[in-house]
Design goal:
The protein is built from 5 helices and no strands. Keywords: Coiled coil.
């Protein structure tokens, strides 16, 4: 048999080893608890699911056109549009220095131009840029411009009464109509120039 002091040494080393193992087990248990807590927090967080997105631009097909294009009736890119608005709930429509008949005349002349001259001008731009459009697309462009005309008429009326306070109603109408026609043509031209290039020969 071993001496007593040798047995005592062996038991002491076993005790130390067991304590080390217990300490290691506690550390591992704490790590597992922390991982569980982290997993629970992640599982409760809102999930974002992004599925695969594929873009095939060569297969795009326009079946319906809706909405507003805003195709550039503002020659100053909005720099002067703040003049269109006033405080106390008014928007500057029909300033007192302009007779309602003059405004109505401008609107009628521009509407007449939209029904006749603008369509012809659009056809000329299609030929110039070799980009023929179909009738629904032409009408969609013209309708979009039509929606912006009242705002542009108001803008030019305010602008012209400030710049030409002594102009006659006839002079005022002609000047505003010329500017509006210029804006209409510029808007259509900018729109056609920015259409994607066609790869087909048709």
């Amino acid at each position: 048999m071993y001496p007593n002091d040798n047995i005592y040494g062996i038991l002491q080393r076993m005790q130390q080893h067991i304590e080390q193992q217990n300490h290691r087990i506690k550390m591992l248990e704490n790590m597992v608890d922390n991982l569980k807590d982290g997993y629970e927090q992640l599982s409760k967080a809102p999930k974002t699911n992004i599925e695969k997105i594929e873009y095939k631009f060569d297969q795009l097909k326009i079946e319906r056109l809706d909405g507003t294009l805003n195709i550039g009736l503002n020659p100053n890119d909005g720099a002067d549009m703040l003049q269109d608005f006033t405080v106390n709930g008014t928007n500057g429509m029909n300033p007192p220095s302009i007779a309602p008949e003059t405004i109505q005349s401008i609107q009628q002349n521009i509407n007449s131009y939209m029904q006749n001259g603008a369509l012809k001008q659009l056809g000329e731009l299609e030929q110039k840029y070799n980009y023929p459009l179909d009738d629904p697309y032409r009408h969609f462009i013209l309708n979009d411009i039509q929606k912006q005309l009242d705002q542009r008429i108001n803008y030019y009326i305010n602008q012209q009464t400030d710049r030409s306070p002594n102009a006659s109603p006839q002079e005022l109408s002609e000047e505003i109509e010329n500017k509006l026609k210029r804006d209409i043509v510029n808007g259509m031209e900018a729109f056609i120039k920015n259409l994607p290039k066609r790869t087909d020969s048709s």
